[in-house]
Amino acid sequence: MGKDGPRPGVETPLPLTQADAELRRERLYGRRVGKPLRAHQQSLIETRLAEFSVPQDGPIDLRAMFPKASAFAFEVGFGGGEHLVAQANLHPEWGFIGCEPFINGAAKLVARIVDEKLPNIRLHLGDAREVMPRLPEQCLNAFYLLFPDPWPKARHHKRRFVTARNLDQAARLLRPGGELRVATDIADYARWTLEHLMPHPAFRWAAEHAADWRNRPADWPATRYEQKALRQGRHSTYLRFIRL
């Protein structure tokens, strides 16, 4: 900004709304770009990302986006997209939305969608909380939160996805009998998740035996984060909650 106003060619940023400001203060992620994209990945982001993205504004019409789908699911932070692609192949009759602020992960997912010709995945390059309020009530059969950033420092706990506000939103979106699945390799995050979800009136913990949270269910495909944790000697916890 110059003394007499904006410099020529420089766009003046719009003021943040209160909701935008809260998202920035409590953002769920750190950096957005890792290694430089390869030429093919960059080309896919530039030419195909929009084709597979959810609409940028307004209410989201799932039936219009997935005209052949009989059920819908949502994933927060899909990483490289391994779980989302596996679920899309397991359930071709479902429509899947995945959110990921990390552009390298989005590029990998777009490549998988193109290579495997998957018509039932749409993604949002950004914060999942930008999409959730735009979805209709009781529209989801499954809601996935797999290996989220644990934000281990106490002063950053407000950035964890598992908060009363986000759980209320997940409860609004899930149909009765739908599942909220949370996986983590951090014991403190598993404890945090149980402390928030056990008293929540909209959810029931599905576990009946210790094996239910120690062993990954057969219809729960592995992710690279889980495999990395195993290589580093950390065991994962698999939590399933049923929408009442």
Give short descriptive properties of this protein.
244 residues, 9 helices, globular, disordered N terminus
Structure description:
- The chain is α/β, with parallel strands linked by helices and 244 residues long.
- The chain has one domain: Rossmann fold (3-Layer(aba) Sandwich), CATH 3.40.50.
- The protein contains 9 helices and 7 strands, in the order αααβαβαββαβαβααβ.
- Strand 2, helix 5 and strand 3 form a beta-alpha-beta unit.
- Helix 2 crosses helix 5.
- The longest helix has 14 residues.
- It is globular, with a radius of gyration of 19 Å.
- The N terminus is likely disordered.
Shape: globular
Number of helical segments? 9
State the oligomer. Answer: single chain
> What is the CA–CA distance across the termini?
53 Å
What is the N-to-C succession of helices and strands? HHHEHEHEEHEHEHHE
Overall SS class: alpha/beta
What percentage of the residues does DSSP assign to strands (E)? Answer: 15-25%
Q: Please count the beta strands (DSSP E, at least 2 residues each).
A: 7
Given as residue ranges, the uncertain stretches (5+ residues, pLDDT < 50) are: 1-16, 28-32
The profile of the biggest β sheet is: 7 strands, mixed
Q: Total domains, how many? A: 1
The overall average pLDDT, rounded, is: 89
Share of helix, binned: 25-40%
For this structure, the CATH topology is Rossmann fold
- Going by CATH, what is the homologous superfamily? Vaccinia Virus protein VP39
CATH class: Alpha Beta
Strand order of the largest sheet: 3-2-1-4-5-7-6
